[in-house]
Amino acid sequence: MLGPNGVYLMVSFGNPESRLDHLKKKEFEWGIWVHRLMKPTVTAQITPSNVEREDRNYHYLYVCVKGKKNEGAVMVEDKKEEEKKKEEKK
């Protein structure tokens, strides 16, 4: 059982569409942040820039913080990409 402000971390192959229904239960009373992490590669020829951008190429880190509500779940990398795009437009 998590205490107030306790943190639950889950690393999964499963994308948010398959995992968030389990994590969003009301009784958990936590905020959820999702980090998408590129899977490590074995060769230098395969890099994030030349690999297909598909779910199978990522691991997902789910950070759940008790008592820190957010609206649904926040995909952290999507937020960063949005901020980069805004900066590029300036």
Short description:
The chain is α+β, with helices and mostly antiparallel strands.
Task: Give a written overview of the molecule.
By secondary structure, the chain is an alpha+beta fold. It has one domain. It is built from 2 helices and 4 strands. It has a 4-stranded mixed sheet. The N and C termini lie far apart (46 Å). The model has no long low-confidence stretch (mean pLDDT 79).
Task: Detail the topology: elements first, then pairings.
Layout: E1 7-12, H1 16-23, E2 30-38, E3 58-66, E4 73-75, H2 76-89
Parallel strand pairs: 2-4
Antiparallel strand pairs: 1-3, 2-3
Shape: globular
- Provide the residue-averaged pLDDT: 79
Trace the largest sheet across and list its strands.
Answer: 1-3-2-4
Proportion in β-strands: 25-35%
Give the count of helical stretches. 2
> In angstroms, what separates the terminal alpha carbons?
46 Å
Radius of gyration: 15 Å
> How would a crystallographer describe the biggest sheet?
4 strands, mixed
Give the quaternary arrangement of the chains: single chain
- The SSE string, one letter per element, is EHEEEH
| Helical/strand content category | alpha+beta
Give the tally of structural domains: 1
Helix content: 10-25%
Instruction: Catalogue the unreliable spans.
Output: none
Question: Care to count the β-strands?
Answer: 4
